[in-house]
Amino acid sequence: MASEFKKITRLGLFAAVCFWTTACEKSSTDEAFNYPNTANIATITAELTQVTLFDELQGRVRPLRSAEIRPQVEGIITQRLFKQGDTLKQGDALFQIDQDIFTIDVEIKQAALEQSMAHLALIQSQVDRFTQLDRTKAVSKQAFEEVSFNLQIAAATVQQNRAQLKHSELQLEYAKVTAPISGIIGEALVTEGSLVSRTEPQPLAIIQQIDKVYIDVRQPASKLGLLRRLLANEQKNSEQGVKVIVQSSAESADDIEGQILFSGISVDENTGDLIIRIIADNAQQKLLPGMYVRTQIPRQKLQAITVPEHAVRRNSAGLPFVYIVVNDKFELRPVQLEGLQQRRYVISKGVNPNDIVVVTGQDNLREGAELVLSDWQQ
């Protein structure tokens, strides 16, 4: 009897423990799924705005001007007159070629000119004397004509010697090689002691002007019509033409503004692309020749709705959608995107003007929850 009482007591205690444990688990479960009855969300009111759609394309930087430094006379380089990598102005001295032979040639031509001028003066005095004699018929006509011809020959000789002197002086001037353009000079490709001439295939150095640069971009020829219409409209409204945005790298925070100069007329047979040339200010020299950059080329201007990028979500299939508030309730609205412009998605379909679009707080949305709306702050 005592043993049965102990069994009953144990069973009672076990049942009590199980009941208490189940009650605790149920209480915890109910508490875990006790969602709040409100959903705090930040919203904006959709409105139509003027939007410019861009194509993001790769481009290569070209210098505004580039000049290969070549000698115009033959000789030995005696001195390099610049520091490699310097910014130079047009006319700055770069190399000195041995000028002794050119100096001597100038002196020879100067002496020849002076000699011919003295001979011209002598012939001129003879002509003057023969002119006086011709009035009195004291000189033959043949002698007078001969001295007149000699005067013309002497005058021509003076002109010839003067031209030869100028040529020699120019050769002496060319012995000092100067910068044909302003810009940044690279490495010297020859050293002192090198024999150089006009026929050498290798230049002495290269100067590139990069305070402004060209950017050559390849764009599909199929989009040429849209670009031409945009160019025509912009040229009517502004003398500056179509502006583009250039980024030197993905990490660059500063955009560089450029301007479309022209689009090519030859289409690459292999790729179907054509060249668009852009000019951009580069005073800070962030863009270097040969560098690849990203550009945003305007494609089309239209009236469209834009929303912050946080407002757009994607489903499991990757399709975009937004949440719209209608009559204090929310609904999911599929949308069609035209691109991302300045951290805002351009929506062409799915959202209408004056729709209330949820920007943040989408995770708080649940059926039956009371919506608490606030204006989204950027």
Automatic annotation (TrEMBL):
Ranges where the Multidrug resistance protein MdtA-like beta-barrel domain occurs: 213-297
Residue span(s) of domain Multidrug resistance protein MdtA-like barrel-sandwich hybrid: 65-208
One GO BP annotation of this record: response to antibiotic
Domain Multidrug resistance protein MdtA-like C-terminal permuted SH3: 303-363
Highest taxon of source: Bacteria
Entry membrane topology: Lipid-anchor
InterPro entries tied to this protein: MdtA-like_b-barrel (IPR058626), MdtA-like_BSH (IPR058625), MdtA-like_C (IPR058627), MdtA-like_HH (IPR058624), RND_pump_MFP (IPR006143)
Pfam families to which the protein is assigned, alphabetical: Beta-barrel_RND, BSH_RND, HH_MFP_RND, RND-MFP_C
Listed GO MF terms: transmembrane transporter activity
One Gene Ontology cellular component annotation held by this UniProt entry: cell envelope
Stretches assigned to the Multidrug resistance protein MdtA-like alpha-helical hairpin domain: 110-175
Subcellular location(s) per record: Cell inner membrane
Main localization (coarse): membrane
Family, per entry: Belongs to the membrane fusion protein (MFP) (TC 8.A.1) family.
NCBIfam families to which the protein is assigned, alphabetical: RND_mfp (TIGR01730)
Name under which the protein is recorded: Efflux transporter, RND family, MFP subunit
